[in-house]
Amino acid sequence: MADYKVLAGSAVRQKPGILSEFLQSLLELDTAGITVDFMFVNDNELEKSEELLKNFNPPRSRVHIIEGDKTDTYTCDEKKHQWKETLIWKVADYKDRIISYAREKNYDFLFLIDSDLVLHPRTLVHLISTGRDIISEIFWTKWNPELPPLPQVWVTDQYNLYHKHRNQQLTQEEINSRINGYLNCLKIPGVYEVGGLGACTLISKKALQAGVSYKEIKNLSFWGEDRHFCIRASALGFKLYVDTHYPAYHIYRESELEGVAGYKNWCRKRLFNTGGASLRSRTKSENNKLTLSMLVRNEAGRYLPQVLKHAAEYIDEAVILDDASEDDTAAVCREILKDIPLTLVSNKTPGFDNEIQLRKQQWELTVSTGPDWILCLDADEIFEDRVKNEIRLLINQPYYDYFAFRLYDFWDAHHYREDTYWQAHKFYRPFLIRYQPNFNYLWKETSLHCGRLPANIIELPGALSRLRIKHFGWADVKDRVDKYQRYMRLDPGGKHGIIQQYQSILDPNPRLIKWEE
Question: Per the domain annotation, does 169 fall within a domain?
Answer without folding.
Answer: no
